[in-house]
Design goal:
Layout lengths: L1 E3 L4 H11 L6 H6 L3 E8 L2 E11 L6 E10 L8 H15 L2 E9 L3 H9 L3 E5 L2 E7 L2
Parallel strand pairs: 4-5
Antiparallel strand pairs: 1-2, 2-3, 3-4, 5-7, 6-7
């Protein structure tokens, strides 16, 4: 189940604890203008998460930036990442964004396959790889 964590700081805090060693300001992030976050849950277990921002542009068109998408090892290759990405893209489109970009590592083949299979266009490639999505 994919849940919108932008409106649930406790759920976002749970994902932060699962995937990072850092302290959390999940509540502050959830209240930040333009923040988007989704958490994949299986009963009480956090399977994965993604987060990023809706960014206004001077030409009036909004775009999305996906900063992080991560799935816990036991849940990989089960469609969790795909559903998180789909939720993020749809939320951005509902908010008026027309494009999304992200950056991933050149050797992160699993992520690259996911992005390309969901329609991402390759923008640049080097030690990091940039992708663009056109939103419906």
């Amino acid at each position: 189940m994919i849940l919108d964590a932008s409106t649930a700081p406790d759920l976002l805090q749970k994902a932060v604890r699962r995937f990072t060693d850092a302290g959390s300001s999940a509540a502050a992030f959830a209240q930040s203008v333009g923040s988007l976050a989704f958490v994949a849950m299986d009963e009480d277990e956090v399977q994965g998460w993604c987060w990023g921002y809706r960014l206004p542009r001077p030409d009036g068109a909004d775009m999305l930036y996906l900063h992080n998408l991560e799935v816990a090892a036991p849940y990989r290759r089960r469609g969790v990442g795909r559903e998180l990405l789909r939720s993020f893209l749809h939320a951005g489109a509902r908010l008026g964004a027309t494009r999304m970009f992200l950056v991933t590592g050149e050797t992160n083949t699993a992520a690259r396959h996911l992005y390309e299979s969901m329609g991402a266009g390759l923008a640049t490639q080097g030690p990091t790889v940039n992708y663009w999505f056109v939103l419906p």
